[in-house]
Each structure stands twice: as structure tokens, then as C-alpha cells.
Design brief:
With 242 residues, the chain is of the alpha/beta class. It has helices at 21-31, 49-54, 72-85, 103-109, 134-151, 171-174, 183-194, 218-237, and strands at residues 8-14, 37-42, 61-65, 90-93, 117-121, 162-165, 199-203.
Length: 242
């Protein structure tokens, strides 16, 4: 497969990221050696992000402005639906805050011949989270241990930096994930894993965000753990994902 001839969509959800928009665009332009389009899905930012978007005139950058904050999982689902509808072969999703380095996209595409879904792994390299504060590092590591234990998998399922092959993965299978928040990532990964899609992962280093503050609150963490248990019981006790 010649990836250079395939349509690639880079999907980036945003909410109040005005200081990071141009930075991530420039890093993608500098790092990615393939043909691509970028889709920003903005959840009604109030910090001036919209003004930044209005000044972007590049033909390969598209903006989807939503009328309210509907959740990061919802934003991913909206962007993925767009990618399937526009017949992009690959959809790469990533954050805008600088924690996801576009340089890894070149490594991701090298695995596309033998993968259905490629996710990034923050735990193969022991120094991956060295720049994070103790609280975020503990929560992320504990969640990873918890998820890998109850689902008996080594996948780093909660990360947003990933790539879908739209020719191999059915859109309806991704949309079986009901969560509209951060749990979407774990839920969708577990669903595709249980449906025997081929999932590969690459190790990455995640620095702390460039500017602004994390949108994840303490209640998001609590709800996330409870929702992970719900996913487990749905798989074990029902056929809701079938």
C-alpha cells in the first residue's frame, strides 16, 4: 500500500486552545511528510480560539464549529463520522495541547499495512510521563494498570493519539462506544479489541501541555473508572456491543 496516495485526515478536537492552534499546525507542517487534511472540531470555545480559526486560510484545514461543549468523546465521534463520510482512508486523532507530537505520525503510517487500529503507548518507555505532575502521572498509570488487568490486555487504551483504517474498521463498530467523554477512548479500543480487529501500538514520549490548563477534572476521573467497570459488565453479561 502506498500511503502517500491515500487520503489522510488529522482530527483535532479543541476547546479554549487559542495559544496552541498555530503551534500544532506548524508542527504538523514541519513533521508530517504525507498528504493530509486537518479537521478541527471546536466545542464553542470562548477564549478567542474562533478568531484564530477565522484567520486560517489554508485549503487543507477545515473547521467544524459546534454550538456547545459536548465532550471530547463526542467531538471525536463527530470528526470520525466526517472522515468516513468524506472517504478518507486513514483518520489520525490527536490533542491540540502539544502533548501529542506530530513526528510520531510518520512512525504510525509505517504500521498501516499490518494494522486496523494503531494506538500510542505511554508505558513502554519508563520516561514517557516524566514531565507530568505526580497527580496526573498516578491517575494515568493506575488507570492503565486497572484497564489492562480487567480486560486482560496490554493495550494503552485511554490515549487519544491514534489512527483508524476506515477500509478495515466498520464505522458502526466505533460508534458502539456510547461515552461522549474521555471514556470514549477506552470503550472504543476495548470494543475493537473484542471484535478481533488488529491493533498495534507504538511507544511515545508525552511532554506536559504547552499552555493552558487540562480540561480533565477530578469527577472525570471518578466517572471514568466507574464507566470502565460498566464496559466490563456490558462485555461479560450482555451483548450490547454485538
Amino acid at each position: 500500500m502506498n500511503v502517500n496516495k491515500k487520503k489522510i485526515l488529522i482530527l483535532i478536537p479543541t476547546f479554549n486552545e487559542k495559544k496552541n492552534i498555530n503551534r500544532i499546525i506548524n508542527k504538523i507542517k514541519k513533521s508530517v511528510k504525507l498528504k493530509y487534511d486537518i479537521l478541527f472540531v471546536d466545542d464553542n470555545s470562548t477564549d478567542g480560539t474562533k478568531k484564530i480559526f477565522n484567520n486560517i486560510k489554508l485549503k487543507n484545514i477545515f473547521i467544524f464549529n459546534r454550538k456547545e461543549k459536548l465532550g471530547v468523546g463526542s467531538a471525536h465521534k463527530a470528526g470520525i463520522k466526517y472522515g468516513y463520510r468524506k472517504k478518507y482512508r486513514f483518520i489520525i486523532t490527536m490533542d491540540c495541547d502539544g502533548t501529542h507530537d506530530p513526528k510520531y505520525i510518520n512512525k504510525i503510517v509505517k504500521l498501516l499495512n499490518k494494522s486496523d487500529l494503531i494506538i500510542t503507548d505511554r508505558f513502554q518507555n519508563k520516561n514517557s510521563l516524566s514531565g507530568w505532575n505526580i497527580y496526573r502521572k498516578f491517575i494515568t498509570t493506575f488507570r492503565h494498570i486497572f484497564v489492562t488487568f480487567i480486560f486482560n490486555t496490554n493495550l494503552d487504551s485511554s490515549g487519544a493519539f491514534r489512527c483508524y483504517d476506515t477500509k478495515k474498521i466498520k464505522l458502526k463498530d466505533i460508534m458502539l462506544a456510547k461515552s461522549n467523554s474521555y471514556s470514549f477512548f477506552t470503550e472504543s479500543t476495548v470494543i475493537l479489541y473484542t471484535k478481533n480487529y488488529k491493533i498495534n501500538q507504538i511507544p511515545v514520549i508525552l511532554p506536559k501541555r504547552h499552555s493552558g490548563s487540562s480540561k480533565m477534572k477530578f469527577m472525570d476521573v471518578v466517572i471514568g473508572f466507574l464507566y470502565t467497570l460498566l464496559i466490563f459488565f456490558r462485555i461479560k453479561l450482555t451483548n450490547i456491543y454485538n
